[in-house]
Amino acid sequence: MTGDSLPAVETAAPGVTAPDARVLPPPGAAVVFGPVLGDAVAYARILATRGVEQGLIGPHEVPRLWDRHLLNCAVVAELIGHRGGTLVDIGSGAGLPGVVLAMVRPDLNVILLEPMERRCRFLSGCVAELGLANAVVRRGRAEDTRVRADVATARAVAPLDRLAELAVGVVRPGGMVLAIKGRTAVGELEKARPVLRRIGARGAEVVLAGQGKVDPATTVVRFFARRGRASGGAQLLPAGRGESENGGSECTWPGLAGRSPGGPGARC
Prior knowledge:
Layout lengths: L28 H5 L3 H17 L11 H10 L2 H4 L5 E5 L7 H7 L4 E6 L2 H14 L4 E5 L9 E7 L4 H9 L2 E10 L4 H14 L3 E8 L8 E7 L44
Parallel strand pairs: 1-2, 1-4, 2-3, 4-5
Antiparallel strand pairs: 5-7, 6-7
Helix pairs in contact: 7-8
C-alpha cells in the first residue's frame, strides 16, 4: 500500500493508543491486521526506534515501514491458509516476516531462526514486549539446525537457488516454502529451477499475496519440499537448552520454556 495512493491517518486507529506520528497506520492496515492492529503499531514503534538504533532497519525505511514492510509481510499469511502447525522464519533479522506472521496468525507456532546474537536479543525483546506466546527465538543457521516445520518463510536472505537448499532442510517432507522476492521473483525462479529439480521441490511458482488489500501486492515464490515417509510437526530442541547445534547460544523467551512449539502436521 503506497503512500501515494493512501495518505497516512492523522489520528490513532481504534484500539491504538497515541502512537508516534512516524508509525501511524494507514487506513487499510485495519483490514489486514484486524484485532492485532495495536500490536502492529507497537512493533512499528520498536522498529522505528530500537530497530534503527541497532542497525536492523535503515533510517530511511521508517516512513515506509507500513507499506514496504509490515503490510507486505502480513498478507503472506493468506498463502498459509488454514494449515496451522509450525512455521520457521529463516534469517529472521528484525522479525520480518516472522514476528508479523506470529502476530496475525496466533494459531501458528513460529520459530524465529537467526544466526546473529545481537539480532536474537532484539527479536527476544520484541517477542516479550508484544506478548507473542506462539513465538520462540532460536539462534542458529538453517543448515545447522534440527527443525522440521510445516512452513518456512524467508525475506531478503539469499538468492533463491541458495535459499531453496536451506529451506528444504528445515521443513518436513511435503512442507511449504514461501520466499518473499518482489520484482526479482520471476528471474530468480528461472535461475533456481535446476536446483529445485535436484532437491525434488515441486509446484514452484510465483504467486501474489494481498491483492486488493495492499498495493503493490506481495510477490512470493512458493514451492513444496519432496514428500517422504516422515510425519508432520516440528522437531525442535526444547527452550532453555542454552546451546544450538552450531555452538551458539539459543535465544528463547522464558515464557515458552517447557512448551513444545510443534503442532500437528498438515497436508500440502
